[in-house]
């Protein structure tokens, strides 16, 4: 899917704060350093503006084909990577349930109350064939620690949706790394 030795531009990391997106871009650079030279659009924005690409074109919801081509020429990139946090669901950090609350007829009502879930969409565009981008989604669910007790159970989850989001992002980058040939 992705050919080693090329340059990849991370165009957007949507759904994360700007500072977190920059950290994730750096993490991506480190994870793929042996296979791809990775750059991040906000870090390259000045160079692209200097070469005549309009600010609005770079910050559009979706890069136009024309803008993609200009970026390809200026930065010499083969792949564009769009990342978007598409779903997050945060649960409580603690729950205590009696045996009657854990009745199999009622359990679906509280089964996921303490779980944190995040889904991240990855779209890779090969500039040699930009009309056929490839997408995949990574979903991570972090379940609580269940502590059985005589009268029921307690559930504790020390994580949050940020942990699930970052873990989903990292798993997606690992999946890209596995696809490099």
Compressed to H and E, one letter per element, the order equals: EHEHHHEEEEEEH
The assembly state of the depicted protein chains is single chain
Q: Biggest sheet, open or closed, and with what strands and sense?
A: 5 strands, mixed
CA radius of gyration:
21 Å
Number of helical stretches of at least 4 residues: 5
- For the secondary structure, the number of strands is 8
Kindly report the average pLDDT value. Answer: 88
The SS-based structural class is alpha/beta
Structure report:
The structure is a single chain. By secondary structure, this protein is an alpha/beta fold. The chain is built from five helices and eight strands, in the order βαβαααββββββα. The strands form two sheets. The protein has a five-stranded mixed sheet with strand order 2-1-3-5-6, with helices on both faces. The chain has a three-stranded antiparallel sheet with strand order 4-8-7, with no helix packed on it. α1 packs parallel to α5. The longest helix is centred in the last third of the chain and has 19 residues, at 161-179. The radius of gyration is 21 Å and the shape is elongated.
